[in-house]
Amino acid sequence: MTLRGKQTVRDLRRGSRSTLLRRLYFDGPLSRQELGRISGLSAGSISNVIGELLADGLVEECGSVESDGGRPRILLQVPPGRAHLVGVDVGETQVRVALFDLALTELAASDHPLSDKGHDVDHVVELILTGLAEVLRRTGVDPDTVLGVGVGVPGIVEQGDPARRGAGIVVHSQTVDWDAVPLGRLLRAGTDLPLHVDNGAKTLGQAEMWFGAGRGAQHAVVALFGSGVGACVIADGARFRGATSSAGEWGHTKVHVGGRLCRCGARGCLEAYVGAEALVERWGKAPDSSAEKAGLAALLAAAEAGESAAVELLAEAAEYLGAAIADLINLFNPERIVIGGWAGLLLGPRLLPAVREAATAYALRFPRAQTSIELGRLGPDAVTVGAATLPLSQFLDSGGEIPGRIGPGGPAAG
Amino acid sequence: MTLRGKQTVRDLRRGSRSTLLRRLYFDGPLSRQELGRISGLSAGSISNVIGELLADGLVEECGSVESDGGRPRILLQVPPGRAHLVGVDVGETQVRVALFDLALTELAASDHPLSDKGHDVDHVVELILTGLAEVLRRTGVDPDTVLGVGVGVPGIVEQGDPARRGAGIVVHSQTVDWDAVPLGRLLRAGTDLPLHVDNGAKTLGQAEMWFGAGRGAQHAVVALFGSGVGACVIADGARFRGATSSAGEWGHTKVHVGGRLCRCGARGCLEAYVGAEALVERWGKAPDSSAEKAGLAALLAAAEAGESAAVELLAEAAEYLGAAIADLINLFNPERIVIGGWAGLLLGPRLLPAVREAATAYALRFPRAQTSIELGRLGPDAVTVGAATLPLSQFLDSGGEIPGRIGPGGPAAG
DNA sequence: AGGCTTACTTCAAGCCGTGATTTAACGTGT
DNA sequence: ACACGTTAAATCACGGCTTGAAGTAAGCCT
User: Fold this and answer.
1) Nearest to B279 by CA among B327, B328, B334, B350
2) Which of B3, B26, B156 is facing A19, going by the closest CB pair?
3) Yes or no, beta carbons of B333 and A242 under 8 Å apart
4) pLDDT for the residue numbered A3
5) CB-based contact A271:A229 (threshold 8 Å)
6) A53, A93, A229, B24: which one has the fewest Cβ atoms less than 10 Å from its Cβ?
7) What's the pLDDT score for residue A380?
8) Which of the residues in chain A have pLDDT under 50?
9) Which residues in chain B are contacts of A332 at CB distance < 8 A?
10) What chain B residue is nearest to A16 in terms of C-alpha separation?
């Protein structure tokens, strides 16, 4: 049933450019020879395509490799300064805007705490636009070299029509009370840069896949647990989105039908058993949400000290987490499961053995044997990095197309 | 991270052939004009490619459409008799082999009940090969026109290296006690036809997607419940397989951690709450497995008659089923959920309203609003049809390539 | 019979990847 | 120094693809 659209002969070139660019980007400096071996393209094509990329400035030569009797191979790489990316994290307490070069080195960042207006949409939009202007000004980077702005938000993101260049993006979030917020349109009014918006947990997952514990896997699930619980599913090397890009809402999987009440209103959600908010609340001390991280750390310390209530609470959480991971294994059959998120990283070292054991007990033998369960390697700061991978991904897919900015009356109109 | 391999200019033609063939196959007789509009290809290319397909006998002209003042359009279709397909259902009590034409009209079928040897592998293989020979003999169909044999089996199927033409296929099943059974190799020894093997529930799901309640959906989950519970996930119009093609094992999702014991050995599996075997057993009457269908029918009749134990049992099952469907909605974000399988079809009319209600209560609002929950339209006999879609799908993907049979010393050797 | 409309076919033009050939840039041995 | 072998990269003819324009076929209407 899958039908890819019309293909013309020029799409071949786009594909070749994309393949070579990706390879050079991820697998560091490579020679034309190696590119040929890896990509399967003929030497002639490599020469031709690389010539184009060199002329476009998307690839540069960087030294050569010693030969043993023949002409030395010239190494090629993607010049990190050729283009830039912006990543935005709309978090629970602040808005963070960061400017990166192509190698995702952070050149500047701007943090603005959310004022008492909370997640008022106009306020958030204003902070994003201010931060964007700020990092551009501070670094003096030409906006024309910015490939796009990636934004990670809490909640479910509806992508809208891609032809509208992000202007059709709508966000729904039960936790920060955003109901069909037209974030794309609002941001579009303040910048001409290409826009990309996705769920913050998903962007963090993307970051783990590209630069963290998920590297190299083609089928993986990044389980993110923090205050709430989410997941980012990767299938065949690409984000699994579903019909309206809300796939992977793992936190509200039922682990105990009719069980504990979750903040989503239903009973028995995973999040109500292993979410940081739920754990801290059940432990009974400091249910002040601003002190959630401190509360969880205290719970962990108590457990390490042998306090039996804490030990039991964490043991139960590990069992539920393992069981829910077993569901992921049965349903998605990944080769790797990565546990990330601030709470995951905090509790992970203590819980991991029990979680692995529970997953083995609850999952089917065969798919469980194909899966490794690991801890994430990137902290929660990586949300901005992940957000920046959104425009980067499109850049690589398109074979290195530098998107033009929209003039007035462009496709954003309406 | 997705990199599709090298593409040469000839792959374009393969793609065009595939697109047009698919369109003609599914959307009935079409003219070249309409094909052009739908596929986006230019009139020249259509003419060219259709000319090839006509010469190959993969497409034929079938009448024309009245014009209003111009040259009439000539209608094209895929001739149903041009090639044949074999579908095999290795069921719980019998092995069924059916021969189809391209339109999936059943030309002949052969049923062999499993003897007391049960699911002894050699016995099953023998029945498949016997049935295959039988349907070919009875219809007089030339084996060279058979595109392949699709087999639906209980259990998880490891696809092995496609270059070995199915000889690398291995089956694991905890229920019929098959542990790493080299079904591909065993069948390969008895036939030269291309082999395709997949889980029976998955092939049934495929049939629902192509010809049943799933038609037209790009993102769907076909939930199959019979004696056990399974699911077939479709994403972007294609089967979601996961790393080792065992994705979609929904029956052992945990709905009640620490709850009822499941036949898989774990506690709290969905199957232990809504599987037909579990329901019949819990109802307490006739736990004889051979009378499972009669038992479930009796349970349903009792509930319809108002017997409170039966009513409560089914109400509980509906709630668990709805909750588990909510998990599917949250995780996969499908546009449609189809409930199939013999037990699903039997209980469906009574349970559906309660299931929908429970799903709404347990799923997140936004993805739930995108999803419709429907009953399947195909009976369990459709497993053979679904199995036959496996070689058919490959045929359409390849743009109408008739696979040659393997000679001795072919790639199957070793 | 002539004109009009629509469906289909043919053909030159522009690209693309391949694979063979040529050129470039090294180390080595004399 | 200099020819030689070796390996890397560039060049180019070739077959193949889609497009889009121009040409042909096949029916209506007057």
Assistant:
1) B350
2) B3
3) yes
4) 60
5) yes
6) A93
7) 83
8) 407-414
9) 242, 247
10) B6
* Closest to A155 in 3D by CA, of A191, A119, A125, A117: A119
Q: What is the pLDDT of residue A4?
A: 66
Q: Is the CB of A73 under 7 A from strand D?
A: yes
Confidence (pLDDT) at A407: 44
- Chain B CB contacts of A394 below 8 Å: none
| Token pair belonging to A39 | 């990509």
Question: Please, which contacts does B408-414 make with residues 24 or more away whose CB atoms are closer than 8 Å?
Answer: B410/B165, B411/B163, B411/B164, B411/B165, B411/B167, B412/B164, B412/B165, B412/B167, B412/B188
Amino acid sitting at position A222: V
* Cβ partners under 8 Å of residue B23, min gap 6: A3, B30, B35, B38, B39
DSSP B42-72: -HHHHHHHHHHHHHTTS-EEEEEE--SSSPP
CA dihedral sign, ordered A61, A65, A66, A71: negative
Q: What is the pLDDT, as a whole number, of residue B326?
A: 97
Contacts of B71 (CB under 8 A, 6+ apart): none
Are B373 and B352 in contact by the 8 Å Cβ rule? The answer is yes
Q: How far apart are CA A363 and CA A323, in angstroms?
A: 8
Question: Would the CB atoms of A255 and B257 count as touching at under 8 Å?
Answer: yes
CA of residue A56 to C1' of nucleotide D11, angstroms = 21
Interatomic CA distance for residues A150 and A139, integer angstroms = 18
Residue of A nearest to B261 (CA): A362
Structure tokens at B287: 């736990």
Mean pLDDT of B64-90: 92
- Strand-strand pairing, B73-77 and B30-31: antiparallel
- Looking at residue B403, the DSSP 8-state letter turns out to be P
Cβ-nearest to A331 among B18, B253, B268: B253
Dihedral of the alpha carbons of B322, B328, B331, B336, in degrees to the nearest 10: -110
Phi, psi for residue A381 in degrees, rounded to 5: -65, -20
| Amino acid at site B157 | V
In the prediction, which pLDDT does B414 show?
26
Residue A53 near residue A79, CB atoms below 8 Å: no
CB-strand contact B51/D, under 7 Å: no
Q: CB of A66 under 7 A from strand D?
A: no
The Cα of B59 is separated from the nearest Cα of chain A by a number of Å equal to 19
Dihedrals phi, psi of B270, to nearest 5 degrees: -55, -45
Confirm if A44 and A51 have CB atoms less than 8 A apart.
no
Name A223's bridge partners. A231, A339
Phi, psi of B198 (to 5 degrees): -150, 170
> Distance (Å, rounded) from C-alpha A385 to C-alpha A204?
8
B224 vs A115, higher pLDDT: B224
CB contact under 8 A, B362 and A254: yes
Secondary structure of A347-376 as H, E, C letters: HHHHHHHHHHHHHHHHCCHHHHHCCEEEEC
Contact partners, residue A255, CB within 8 Å, separation at least 6:
A268, A269, A270, A273, A320, A323, A324, B254, B255, B256, B257
Q: Which nucleotide is nearest to A8 (CA to C1')?
A: D18
Q: How confident is the model at residue B411 (pLDDT cuts 50, 70, 90)?
A: very low
CA-CA-CA-CA torsion sign (A21, A24, A30, A33): negative
pLDDT digits (tens, 9 = 90+) for B146-185: 999 999 998 889 998 887 878 899 999 877 888 899 999 9
CB contact under 8 A, A174 and B256: no
- Report the helix count and the strand count for chain B, using DSSP H and E: 13, 16
Closest approach of A111 to chain B, Cα-based (Å): 30
Joined tokens for residue A253? 């999987």
Burial class (CB in 10 A: 0-12, 13-18, 19+), B281: middle
Question: Which pLDDT does position B410 carry in this prediction?
Answer: 36
Q: What is the pLDDT of residue B288?
A: 58
